[in-house]
Structure formats: structure tokens, C-alpha cells
Amino acid sequence: MSYSIAEAARRSGLSIDTLRYYERIKLLDPPARDAAGRRAYSDDDLNWLGFLTKLRTTGMPIKSMREYASLRRHGVASAGRRKALLVEQRRSVAERIAELQGCLDILDYKIDNYAQVERNVLGVEPGMEEISA
Amino acid sequence: MSYSIAEAARRSGLSIDTLRYYERIKLLDPPARDAAGRRAYSDDDLNWLGFLTKLRTTGMPIKSMREYASLRRHGVASAGRRKALLVEQRRSVAERIAELQGCLDILDYKIDNYAQVERNVLGVEPGMEEISA
DNA sequence: ATTTGACCTGGAGTGCACTCCAGGTCGTAC
DNA sequence: GTACGACCTGGAGTGCACTCCAGGTCAAAT
User: Fold this and answer.
1) Is A106 in a helix, a strand, or coil?
2) Interface residues of chain B, partner chain A, Cβ below 8 Å
3) Which residues contact B68 (CB under 8 A, 6 or more apart)?
4) Contacts of B119 (CB under 8 A, 6+ apart)
5) Tens of pLDDT, residues B92-125
């Protein structure tokens, strides 16, 4: 199957502008064109876009995604380097999750404080309202 | 205790420029000044900076941090709104963690593919190298 | 007395990842 | 045959969160 840029945008969740932008910066190989010169994205293109958006979600900078994209064009010989990039990204994602988990705990603590303030404000112990915010 | 801007930067993990920037955009109330007009950060300032960096880590935009900071200046009356902001942020962090967890799974899958390619490349079944990268 | 180093101010510059725009080309619908 | 909508190009503009700079003040060290 092949898809117009609008359809590819819909399916990938990226904007039309972003699709053209990704192509310009060589994140995406130029897709095929139809008779009228319009982009015709393949399923492979869509799969690659899907993976790219995952990498983006992990916070990988475009620079690194470009490196990965470029390695991909060099075939099997680059598989080791590609794997290394993914392993490093995996590590950074795991770290980020742990960090966010820590923030979650702090938020819970703060939220709980506010909940307590709410309870006390309903008529108990004047002077207790100013718990450090 | 009070701290010079350099010391506050060291303790908060923010740069000196960022501390002045946060003050300019009203994320941080202007700290006290010493006799020579230099900033003298208090422990309270440092605690607030610590919490701000947590919020930042969660991906909260500066705009929202400013809102929270502004509410804080309005005392107890704003506690409900502040709690609501934190609850919303908590939700968004939990969502982000789940999203990252999904990416982690995909990375693991890809990494495992590469590991398999590596094993096969060492002399088995020619033609299997081009597993979709 | 001057040099040094940390700090001050207002404002300009940076890098990232898009996002928008003007002006133009197609193929189909009326 | 012209109006329309989707698409094309190269290039400019945007928002965010800093980061850097020039020119100046001040206290302590030489």
C-alpha cells in the first residue's frame, strides 16, 4: 500500500510539515512519488516513522535519530553500532523512569500535605494553616 | 544560613544565569541582598528551588511553574488550586512513565533482534542478515 | 593604588524541533 | 475552462528554556 502525505500524517501522528521536515533533515529517506510528483509513503516508511516517534518519545535528540537513520542505510555492517545506540537509549529511558518515579513520590507527599491542610481548615486548630507550601 | 549565588547554584544544580533568569521571570521571589547588593539566598529559597527543579524534571512548563509560584504568594486561599495543579501534574507524570515503559519494551525487542542477528552472522543460514532494522 | 575575582544589570544570542508562508503545479468536479 | 483542494518548494518565523555578553560596582589581596 502507499499513502498520501495527509494519510501518512494521520497514521503516524506527525504533522504534514513535520513529515517534510524529517525528510529534509534526512531522518526519513525520500519516499516514492506518484505520477504527479506527490509523495507516496510505503508501509515500510510508515513503520520507520512509527519507530522514530518511539525514539522521539524517549527523548532521543534528532541528532541521534539521524545517526541511527544514517547507519541503517549502511546495512548489516552497522548493526553493532545501531544496537549500541539502542542499548544506550534503553539505559537512559530506564534512568528517566526512575527519576520520574522519584518525582511522583514527591508530588504524592505534597498532595497529601495539601489534603491535610484542607481537612484542618474546616475548623480545627487555628494557626496551623501555613504548612510550608 | 544564607548563600551566595555561586553557592546556591552549586546546591541547586542550576547555573548562576538560570538563577537570575528564574528571578526575572518570577519563578523565584527576589532573594535578600547583602550589604554590597549581592543576592543572599536563604534555606527557604533553596528548598523552593529544589521543588522547582523537581517540577521541571517532570516536564512541567515554566508557564505552569510560574502559576504555581504566583499562587504560593497568595497564601492559604490558593491552596486548593495549587493542589489541583499538583494532582494534574501527578497524572501527567504517571502517564509519561507508562509511555516510557512502552518504549522500553520496544527497545528491548529491537535490541533482542540485533542480538539474534549477531549470533546468526557468525556463520549460520546466509540470507537471514537483513532482519527489518 | 591597582589588580583580581565575584557579583551586578539590561539586553542580545543560541539550539532545538518544529511550524508557517508565499507562490506555484496538478488532477478532478462543475 | 475555470474553480477547487491537495500537494509542491525554499525559506522565514516561532516558542521554549536557557546562555552569553558588555560594561560596571565592590571588597579583599598584593
Assistant:
1) helix
2) 47, 51, 54-55, 57-58, 72, 75-76, 79-80, 82-83, 86-87, 89-90, 93-94, 96-97, 99-101, 103-104, 106-108, 110-111, 114-115, 117-118, 121, 129-130, 132-133
3) B55, B82, B85
4) none
5) 999 999 999 999 999 999 999 999 988 877 666 5
How far is the CA of A30 from the CAs of A41, A53, A83, A124, in angstroms?
Answer: 9, 17, 24, 68
What average pLDDT values come out for chain A (133 residues) when binned by 10 residues? 97 98 98 97 98 97 97 93 96 98 98 88 57 49
Provide the phi-psi class of A4: left if phi over 0, else alpha when psi is between -120 and 50, else beta: beta
Element counts in chain A: helices (H) and strands (E) = 5, 3
Asked if residue A61 keeps its beta carbon closer than 7 A to nucleic acid strand C, the reply is: yes
The SS3 of residue A7 is helix
Place of cell 500535605: A113
Decide the pairing of beta strands A39-42 and B2-3.
unpaired
Give the type of residue at A48: W
Phi/psi of residue B33, each to 5°? Answer: -125, 150
DSSP β-bridge partners for residue A33: A39
Give A78's DSSP letter.
Answer: G
Report the predicted TM-score, pTM, of the whole model to 2 decimal places: 0.88
Tell me the three cell numbers of residue B10: 552549586
